[in-house]
Amino acid sequence: MPALLACFEAECRATYPITEVIYSCPRCGGLLEVVYPDLALDAAELKRTWRQRRMDNRPLEQSGVWRYRELIGFLDDYRQVVSLREGNTPLLDAPRAAGYGGLRRLTFKHQGFNPTGSFKDNGMTCGVAQARRLGMRRVACVSTGNTSASMTAYAAAAGLQPVIFIPHGNISYGKLAQALEYGAQTLQVEANFDQILALVRQLADRLGIYLLNSINPFRIEGQKSIIIEMMDQRDWAPPDWIALPGGNLGNTSAFGKALRELRVQGFIDRMPRLAVIQAEGAAPFYDFMRHPRPGAFQPVTAPDTLATAIRIGDPVSWPKAWREVADSGGLVEKVTEREIADAKAQIGLCGIGCEPASAATLAGIRKLTAAGVIKRDDDVVAVLTGNLLKDPDYVYRYHTGQLATAAGVRIEGKYQNCPIVAPNDPDRIAALLGNT
Length: 436
Ligand code: F0G
Fold this sequence. Notes:
Number of strands: 13
CATH architecture of the domain at 91-117 and 218-399: 3-Layer(aba) Sandwich
CATH class of the domain at 91-117 and 218-399: Alpha Beta
Helix content: 25-40%
Number of helices: 15
Strand content: 5-15%
Strand order of the largest sheet: 4-5-13-10-11-12
Largest sheet: 6 strands, mixed
Bound molecules: ligand F0G
Order of helices and strands: EEEHHEHEHEHEHEHEHEHEHHEHHEHH
C-alpha cells in the first residue's frame, strides 16, 4: 500500500487517499499525518546510498531533503519537486556555547544555512511539491515570518501564486523583506498569529488556495529530514538530547516522527530525548506538559515575546508534540526574555549567530544543566532554527541597550557590544583602541 493520510487521534485513525485536499480529519477533526503502511527499508543499504547521493550533481540528490526520499515517500512522480538545495545544513561545534550551557560539548545543527535562512525550507519543498501534484495554483500561509519567506520562495520557483497573512507589526523586517522580494501577495492582518490561522483555515476552501501552514502534513514530512540528515552526519549515533524551540510545535512533531521511523526501520538503536524550549510569555505547551491530560490544553490568549517567531499562544500541533515528547522521554522548559537575549549573544560570540527564537535552545540547556536534568557529559545537539540576519533590529537594540518588551520593560543585556562613535582623529582613535 502506498502512502496515506491518517488521522492522528488514537481512537479514530481514519485513513484517506494521499491526494485528498484536507487539513484535518473530516470524521473527527483530528490532526493528519502521512503514513506508509508497508514501509520496510534496508537501513544498511540506504545509509550507503544516501552517502553516495551527496556526490551526485542532480538536483534531487543535492537536496538535503529529497536525498532521503525513501523515508519521505509520499510522491509518485519526482518531477513535481522544486528544490532550492534546501537542507545540507552543518553540525557545528561550539565550545564557548557549551561552557555557557553547562556542558562539556555542544553541537548546533544550524538550519539558518538554508536557502531562505530557516528550517522551514526543509518542509516547504515537500509542501509545494504536493501543491503541484494536486494541481493547486495558489498557496497560502499564516506566519510569524519564516514560513511566509520560505513558502513565497518555493512558490515563486514553482510558478505558483503565494498569498501570505502576517500579524501586523509583529514580524521582523528581514522576514517581511524576503516575502516582498520573492513576490508574495502580502496581507498584514490586525490580529495575532492564532487568530489569523483560524481565519485562514476558514478562507482556504472558499478561495481555493492550498494551505501550507504546519498543519499541512507534507511539510512535517520534509522537516523530518532535519533529523535524518543530523543522524547521517553523526554516522547514525543518536545524541542524548535534541533541544529545539517550540512555537506552533510543527518541528517537535516532525522530529519525533523522524526519530520513531528511524528506529522502527533500524537506522538508530535508541531514541534521543527531545527538550522543547518555549519563551515564558508564550509557553502554553510548557504549562500543559506539567500535568498533561486530554482536554487540559489551555491556550495563552495574549502571547508575548521578542522572539517573534515563537510568539504563538495556541499551537495547533500540540497533540502530536505531546506524543513525541512523551515517547522520547523528553521534556519542555521555558526561559525568560533576558535568558534568550544573553544566550543569543553567546551564540554570536561563537562566530555562529542565530535569530532570537533559536537561542531559546541554549538558554533552556543552561537552565536544565543547572537543575541537573541534563548532565555535563551528555551529548547534546541544539537546533538553531533561523539565521542571525533574520532580525537585525533585535541585535542592534540588544547591543546598544535599547531592547525592551512590548510592555516597555528594558532588557539589560550582559554581553552588549555597543558601537563607538569616533572622531576623525588618528590619535584619539588610537587612544580609544587602547594604544597610546
Ligand atoms: N524557530 C523559528 C526561527 C521559527 O520561525 C519558528 C516558527 C519556530 C522556531 C517554532 O517552530 O512552530 O515548528 O514549533 N515559525 C513559524 C512561522 C510559526 O510562521 O514562521 P514550530
